[in-house]
Amino acid sequence: MVKVQAQGQVRQRLLEMGFIRGARLRVEKLAPLGDPMELVIKGYHLSLRREESSCILVRLVTG
Amino acid sequence: MTLTIALAGNPNCGKTTLFNALTGARHHVGNWPGVTVERRSGTFEHGGATMEVVDLPGTYSLSARSDDERVASQFLASPEVDLVLNVLDASNLERNLYLSTQLLELGKPVAFVLNMVDDAENRGVRIDVPALELLLGGPVIPTVGNRELGITELKVLLASMARGESNRCRRVTVDYGHDIEGELAKLQAEICRDELLEAAMPPRWLALQLLENNAEAKRVVAESHASEAIRHQLSKSFAFLEPHLGADGATLVAERRYGFAHGLVKEVATAADEKTTPTARLDAVLTHRLLGVPIFIGVLALMYSLSFVLGKIPQDWIADGFKALSDFAGARLPAGELTSLLVDGVIPGVSAVIVFVPVIMILMGCIAFLEDTGYMARAAFIMDRLMHVMGLHGKSFIPLIMGSGCNVPAIQAARTIESPQDRLITMLVTPLVSCSARLQVYIVIAGTFFTPFKAALAIIAMHFLGLGLAVLMGRLLRSALFSGPSSPFVMELPPYRLPTLKATLIHMWEKGSIFLTRAGTTIFAGATLVWFLSRYPGIANRQWTLEYQQQRQVVTTLNLPVAQAEERLKQLQLAHESRIVNTSLAARLGQKVEPILRPILDPDHKRAEAWKDVIALTAGFVAKEIVVSTMAVIHQASEEPKEGERLSPLQVALRDGSGLTPLTALAFMVFTLIYTPCLGTIAMIRREAGSWGWAAFTVSYGLVLGWGLAWVTVAVGRAMGFA
């Protein structure tokens, strides 16, 4: 997880929820209708729409 | 002296369970001033000290962007609060501690509750409580809220703090690092130039919020005489920090807070096991790509049948009981104004309020259960895509579907939607969903004017029209009322938990009593008003009453067989009531209003009695169930079919005497679907949206839309050659 590119409300919300530089996240699954997606970050599960998750820059880490 | 304790914590941390455990039944539910955020407060006594506990809305932070956060941060900053009790979910400590860093910055004494330690232990997380106390600078009590473990220890601690005996609170603050601390100090110095600002909240807290680019903090500063200097210093700080540390203020502050939380967790807690949790195993099925939707539909069907099929049984008892009471009173008391007020006004009015209670309690119980187990978030996860296309939130789905049973609890169910915009839009469009009471009107009308097959089609069409309109209006209202982007859909999927029966029962009781006290009075007042409009002045006409009594006496002296006599008496009663209603204020109103409705109910100006529809529709304002019984009175024909006949006398009267054609009958159905929500729904919208304005808006847009669509029905129908 590298950076949150969103602005305003969404950005602040994501930061508070733990989307900070260096945090690790895992995409768990997509909802049955394809959107939103379930992520695991800082040990808890979170649901994000594509709209919002597209603002998050990540780098692939294996393991 | 009472100590006021503010209960703060993340959503899903078990705060409300803990609140219930602390205060028991001694609590009060209301709203925070100006917003529709629930405010729960209660008291408890321990060791001679009385303490007031205020349960704040669950929030992830105090940055004052949503109503919940604004309420929480304003209350926490107010001098009313003596002690902050921060509830932490032990199984999700790191994110929960983010809020704690902010609470510590507010400068009030903070005590901590480490809740759900059993969950954490099951996941292999063991927490060193003394170490946590040391690092947080305040007492920490481990608890298991739903099993009431640790509650006594918590009460002992709070009581000793109330008596001023325990002073275990030390000031601990997050260290933001040399660069940020330097800028914070400079900002604080500027803030302290204004004593008022300095007194309003801790300068360090304000300085941090400014660095985070918080709109609320900027608004506070803008009112200060030092605002110029503060703004100048802030832009200097930004200019220094951003290139220097490679990120903007908000990111930097969040990173340091999480850094503090992360370090603390590493210090005091063991890492969680890698084994799959029960939640993961459940989710593998419940949010499965293929199984997720069918399971959700199953849950929905179960909830629907519990509320509206099972709930209908006590509802029928209540309705029958009140009907019997009213019949009894009607038969025993002499005919007249007071009797009518009691029999046609007060008893049906009270009945109209109370019949909702079983359904509300069951549906709210189901919803509370789904929320407390964590499935509600999954339901929203599954349905969000569909609802998002409609301009709504995943959590709007349940209220919309439940609306087809009854709109009143459906609007209350919209409470689960966090974003106020999404909640408001959901509440405003829910009345368009055709409820079971409107179904009774369709059955009578469609059964009269259409063949059974076409009638079924028409009734189904009404339900789809209602849902379709709800979706369309949702989109329209979203773009008309809230031009900004829709609120972010960042929703936690909490671990599954089994709520206690007590928690669910408390919730059911609260919702039922809120409905009775807040909405009940409105419904009752409205029902009495409609009684007045539809009975006066005829009910006060002594001559008519006398004639009616004489006619009854004649029948009783005839010595007819019992069944025949009863039949005759019923007819007399219907004739008497019909005479009153058809000359009432409502009838006069109907005659005045009739020209407006003529294009939809009487396009050929052939109907002499179109104004009678207006009386029925006016009565439908109280409850749609009353439309049919009012029609029976107006047309002097019973609504119950005689044995062996398909149509009831009322339907025959409508077919032969009302002048409605199949096309205008369809228009009447369309208008009934949309024209106005019933009083219960209106009262609920007022209560849940917090203003009469939105309730009035719902009524007026319904009237306009209903008229428009009924007109379209007539116009299109005629163009296609129907009459």
Summarize the structure in words.
The complex is a heterodimer of chains A (63) and B (723). In chain A, strand 2 (25-30) and strand 3 form a beta hairpin. Chain A contains 2 helices and 5 strands; from the N terminus they run βαβββαβ. The longest helix of chain A has 9 residues, at 8-16. In chain A, strands 2-3-4 form a 3-stranded antiparallel beta sheet. In chain A, strands 1-5 form a two-stranded antiparallel sheet. Chain A is 21% helix and 32% strand. In chain B, strand 5 (83-89), helix 3 and strand 6 (110-115) form a beta-alpha-beta unit. With 723 residues, chain B is of the alpha/beta class. In chain B, helix 14 (292-310) runs antiparallel to helix 17, helix 17 (356-373) packs parallel to helix 20 (407-413) and helix 21 packs antiparallel against helix 23 (452-481). The chains are: A alpha+beta (63), B alpha/beta (723). The A-B interface holds A 4, 9-18, 20-21, 23, 29-36, 38, 42-49, 51-52 and B 60-61, 63, 65, 92, 94-95, 98, 212-214, 247, 250-251, 254-255, 258, 272, 279, 283, 287-290, 292-293, 377, 380-386, 388, 487-495.
Question: What is the topology?
Answer:
The complex is a heterodimer of chains A (63) and B (723).
Chain A: E1 3-4, H1 8-16, E2 25-30, E3 37-41, E4 44-48, H2 50-53, E5 56-57
Antiparallel strand pairs in A: 1-5, 2-3, 3-4
Chain B: E1 3-9, H1 15-23, E2 27-31, E3 38-46, E4 49-55, H2 67-77, E5 83-89, H3 93-105, E6 110-115, H4 117-122, H5 129-136, E7 140-142, H6 151-162, H7 178-191, H8 195-200, H9 203-211, H10 215-222, H11 227-245, H12 249-268, H13 278-286, H14 292-310, H15 312-332, H16 337-354, H17 356-373, H18 375-389, H19 397-402, H20 407-413, H21 420-429, H22 436-449, H23 452-481, E8 490-492, H24 501-535, H25 542-557, H26 562-581, H27 585-601, H28 610-620, H29 625-634, H30 649-657, H31 662-674, H32 679-689, H33 692-719
Parallel strand pairs in B: 1-4, 1-5, 5-6, 6-7
Antiparallel strand pairs in B: 2-3, 3-4
Helix pairs in contact in B: 3-12, 7-9, 7-11, 14-17, 15-16, 16-24, 17-20, 17-24, 20-32, 21-23, 22-23, 22-30, 22-31, 24-32, 25-26, 27-28, 27-33, 28-29, 31-33, 32-33
